User: Which sequence fits this backbone?
């Protein structure tokens, strides 16, 4: 687990598409108190709507790190970014990145950081040696967000549930398992960078035994139905040992994203599969409801789809950004009681 130095100055590089800046937008939306402002090169057209600051100005206001809020194609840092990153180190900021390429593997950055006593945080790469999963029960409650596919709201659903539970006086922690979630929470484990044999053990370590009324809201990754990432999802499911899971779904998708030859699963079948496999480490696992990403649906269309699906499955259906998450909170309260 990493502990990151916030507040951050969000670096947008020369980004011209918001698609590549989802990390920066995630920080803006979910951790505004950890953000000082944004910094972009002159060629950039993307903005977060935050104050534009130089690294030196941000440092003078209390920023502790420059956080790379965009993901360049290929996961490597472009050479023309290096002067900007060196300038941030010279201004007194550490650098935080979640890319496949390690900051520490770039000689210019590594030597500058060493000379100045600054730290380079490569959060996608674990610094802890994990054990294999034990499958042993542990105290506390856990909710895991799972999906019918990738990239449809597992992180946002988990964040919304954790925030709401805390707002009503509940005891909860958001447990991040992806690079953006880690940057938002300030700690976590990038589970897709853990060797497969140790995924379940890493999640057990991330979500340890706790007070009986404490909830860990664990960010899901991948999908049991994804041909590339199902293994990560299964390891997460077994390590989390969730008392409840929320199934995340995009009603407008007909096939797995990027795999047009693979149809989206039926929701009832998906609930049954997650339940069956989850029982290996928690026989009492249950589905708390369906979280939908309805950003491509009109109001009436969304409401009608949600009502029909809720009736068919006998479970609540909600879009966290439009409807809130109280229907899931109510199920957590029942389990806690």
Assistant:
């Amino acid at each position: 687990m990493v502990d990151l130095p916030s507040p951050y100055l969000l670096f947008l590089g020369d980004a011209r598409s918001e698609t590549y800046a989802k990390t920066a937008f995630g920080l803006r939306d979910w951790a505004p108190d950890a953000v000082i402002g944004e910094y972009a090169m002159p060629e950039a057209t993307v903005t977060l709507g935050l104050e534009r600051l130089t690294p030196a100005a941000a440092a003078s206001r209390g920023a502790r790190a420059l956080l790379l809020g965009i993901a360049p194609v290929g996961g490597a840092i472009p050479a023309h970014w290096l002067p900007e990153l060196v300038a941030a180190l010279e201004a007194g900021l550490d650098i935080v990145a979640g890319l496949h390429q390690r900051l520490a593997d770039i000689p210019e950055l590594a030597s500058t950081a060493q000379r100045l006593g600054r730290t380079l945080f490569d959060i996608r790469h674990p610094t802890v040696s994990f054990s294999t999963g034990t499958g042993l029960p542990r105290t506390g409650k856990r909710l895991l967000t799972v999906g019918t596919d990738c990239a449809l709201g597992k992180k946002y659903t988990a964040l919304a549930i954790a925030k709401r539970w805390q707002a009503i006086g509940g005891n909860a922690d958001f447990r991040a398992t992806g690079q953006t979630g880690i940057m938002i929470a300030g700690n976590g484990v990038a589970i897709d960078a853990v060797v497969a044999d140790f995924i379940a053990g890493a999640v057990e370590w991330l979500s340890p035994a706790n007070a009986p009324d404490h909830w860990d809201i664990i960010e899901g990754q991948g999908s049991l139905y994804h041909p590339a990432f199902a293994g990560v999802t299964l390891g997460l499911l077994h390590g989390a040992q969730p008392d409840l899971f929320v199934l995340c779904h995009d009603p407008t998708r007909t096939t797995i994203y990027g795999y047009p030859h693979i149809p989206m699963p039926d929701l009832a079948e998906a609930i049954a599969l997650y339940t069956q496999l989850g029982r290996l480490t928690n026989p009492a696992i249950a589905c708390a409801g369906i979280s939908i990403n309805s950003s491509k649906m009109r109001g009436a269309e969304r409401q009608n789809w949600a009502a029909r699906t809720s009736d068919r499955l006998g479970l609540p259906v909600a879009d966290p950004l439009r409807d809130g998450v109280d229907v899931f909170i109510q199920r957590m309260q029942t389990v806690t009681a």
Remarks:
- The mean pLDDT is 94.
- The first strand starts at residue 8 and ends at 13.
- Residues 27 and 215 are 23 Å apart (CA to CA).
